[in-house]
Amino acid sequence: ELSRLPLLKVVQYEHFPEQGTGISEDMRHFAPVLEHGAFPSVWDFSVAVTLGDMTRFVSDPFAPRTITDLYVQTLDIEGAEALHGLLSALGANMPALVHLYLELRPRGREGVDTDERFDFELLTRDRIGLETLRPLFGFKELTHFEFTHDVPLRLSDDEVEVLARGLGSRFTSLMLNPEPFVLECPQLTLAAAIPFA
Questions:
Q1: Between β-strands 99-104 and 144-149, what pairing exists: parallel, antiparallel or unpaired?
Q2: Sheet containing strand 173-176, strands side by side
Q3: What is the pLDDT at residue 179?
Q4: What pLDDT is attached to residue 30?
Q5: Nearest-5° angle of CA 17, CA 20, CA 21?
């Protein structure tokens, strides 16, 4: 029904404590059936879904192409393959994107044992690295990218240099997982900042 509103420009929600932190089971079936002309005026779109469902949504031939600001939150931790798929689909289907925010981490851990919400095997497999992020190089309008994930990224200083070159000078803001939930000894040195400077 929202997709049929001709003047709707923003689909957004705020994170207030009274809203709760969300239950992943509540977002298991995000599969809207869109028609020609869906979301004709939307430029700002926020949603909490799985990356797979979001990939299918943006790949729909009737998905909105006018979105410039996109915020995607997942309630479960998802890995490199799912993220690569979404970034590839966004690059191919949402050419107007200027601001992209991906929050791939559970919210509200108060009183929750870390082991219950976190798959520690992700530390050794399916890590997000340069190849996962490479589809960002094809975005023509993107100037702002924020990404959060519970697992630290797997990037070397040399790979950060490739990333900086691939993103180009159009970027004004880049946040690559500054606060992972699981900490480990960092692989990057301060030299990784030089290519961006």
A1: parallel
A2: 10-11, 44-48, 69-74, 99-104, 144-149, 173-176
A3: 86
A4: 83
A5: 105
**Strand segments (E) across the chain:** 10-11, 44-48, 69-74, 99-104, 144-149, 173-176
Rounded to the nearest 5 degrees, what angle is found at the Cα of 72, between the Cα atoms of 67 and 76?
A: 160
How far, in Å, are 16, 74, 79, 85, 107 from residue 20 at the CA level? 7, 14, 24, 29, 9
| This prediction's pTM | 0.87
Mean pLDDT split into 10-residue runs, the chain, 197 residues: 93 71 67 92 92 94 95 85 96 96 72 52 73 95 94 91 91 90 84 90
Strands (E), 37-84: 44-48, 69-74
HSE-CB of 141 using CA atoms within 13 angstroms:
17
Rounded-to-integer distance, Cα 57 and Cα 39, Å: 12
Do the Cβ atoms of 98 and 128 come closer than 8 Å? no
Residue 160: count other Cβ atoms within 10 Å of its Cβ: 21
Distance CA 169, CA 164 (A): 8
Work out the number of other CB atoms within 10 angstroms of the CB of residue 145.
20
